[in-house]
C-alpha cells in the first residue's frame, strides 16, 4: 500500500477525492483496494446529499405512505387501516435513517478503509493540487501523484421569478428534513423529485398542488407519468399539467405564499417547493485554475477522465458529469473510475471496450431508475421514442399487469402497465418500463436483460415463480411471440 508523503506545508497522496458522498466513498474504496493512498475532502456531512437530504430520507418518509396505500388495496387488510398516519413517528423513522444528521459513523468508515478525511472546502489550485480550507480559516495543501476525483454532486436550481426570494421556497432539502406538515403545499416540477415529494406530503396530510409544464416524469414512457398523475389525483392531490408559476408573494414571512399562474389564476399555499432541476456543484472548486469554466458540467470519457485537461489526472464522477443524476449510477461510475485509476497508476492496460472493466457503457444503454410514487414507476434502457430516434428497428410490447395472476393477488384490481422495447434485428431488449405497486423489485431483472443483451429466445427460459408479480415477464414475452417475431 502506498502511503502519504509529507513535506513542509504539503501532503502528497496518490488520489484526492473531493466529496465524501456515496460516489466519493466508492472511488476512494476502489483506489484503496488498488493499493493507493487516498485523501477524501468534505465540506458538509460525510455521506453527502443522498444520505441526509435525498435518497435515504425521502424513502424513509415515503415507505409508510406506500405501506398504507398497499394495505388499502387488499380486501381484509383495507378494513384494518383507520385514522391518519402518525407523522411524529414517520419523522422519527426518517431521523433514525439519517442518524439525526450525525455523520460520525460514515467518517469512521472512511478511516476504516485507510483513507484520510479532511473536513473543509476543497479547491483545485492548479494541476494535481488541492487547497483545503477549514471553517476556522486554516488551510492545508494536498497534491496528487495520480488523480483528483471530483464527486461534489449538484445543487437545486431555483427559477428566476419575481418574488422568489421573498417566498423562501423549499428545495429537496426542506422537503426531506422538515418535521412540520404544511396544510397546503405547492410542488413545482414534474420530475422524479417533484412526484415523490407530492406523494410524500399528500400522504402525510398536506393538500398538495403539483405543477408540471408538460408531463410528469418526462424521461420515462408517457404512460408512466399518466399513471402517476392518476395515482396522485386519486390520493387527493391537485395535478395541473401545462400550468406555470409566473410570480410569488409572501409579504408576511410567517404567512402564506401566493402563486401567480400563467392561466390567469392565483393559488394561496402555506409553503411552495421547487423541484425544477439541478446544477453542478463545481462553481467554487477551482476549475478555472486548470482551464475549465467554473460552474460547468464536466465532460468525461468512458473512464470518467475529464476531457480538455492536460496530463490525464482529473476525473468527474456522479452528478457533476451530467450523465445520470442518480446515486446508483454515480457509484457505478466511481467503481469503474477507481479501477481505471488503479490500472493507470500501475501501468496496466485498460479494458475500455464496450462493457469492459474500465468503460461506463451502462451510462448510455442500461440506466435503471425508480420513482417511489403510488404506483411506483421503474424503467431501464431506452424508451420507445428514444429507440426510434436512435435508428433501431423495434417492436413495442404493452400489457396491463392484470394479465398476471400474481399481480392480482398482490393487490386487488392491481393498477399497472408494462412495456418492453425490443430490437428486432438483434432479438434483445433495449428498454423496459413498469408502473404499479412494488414494481421497483422487478427492475433488476430487466436491467440484467438489457445490460447483458440476453436474447429473447433465451430470456423465455427464465421462468417466473407462480404466483408473483414477476409473471408479467411471461406474458410480455408470449405477446411478443404472438405478434410473429
From TrEMBL:
Residues annotated as signal peptide: none
Keyword Transcription: no
Annotated GO MF terms: oxidoreductase activity
EC number, UniProt record: 1.-.-.-
Stored Gene3D superfamilies: 3.30.390.30, FAD/NAD(P)-binding domain
Protein origin, superkingdom: Bacteria
Cofactor(s) needed for function: FAD
Positions of the FAD/NAD(P)-binding domain: 13-328
Database matches in SUPFAM superfamilies: FAD/NAD(P)-binding domain, FAD/NAD-linked reductases, dimerisation (C-terminal) domain
Domain Pyridine nucleotide-disulphide oxidoreductase dimerisation, first and last residues per copy: 367-472
UniProt xrefs under InterPro entries: Class-I_Pyr_Nuc-Dis_Oxidored, FAD/NAD-bd_sf, FAD/NAD-binding_dom, FAD/NAD-linked_Rdtase_dimer_sf, Pyr_nuc-diS_OxRdtase, Pyr_nucl-diS_OxRdtase_dimer
Keywords in alphabetical order: FAD, Flavoprotein, NAD, Oxidoreductase
Family of this protein: Belongs to the class-I pyridine nucleotide-disulfide oxidoreductase family.
Protein name: Dihydrolipoyl dehydrogenase family protein
Annotated organism of origin: Streptomyces coerulescens
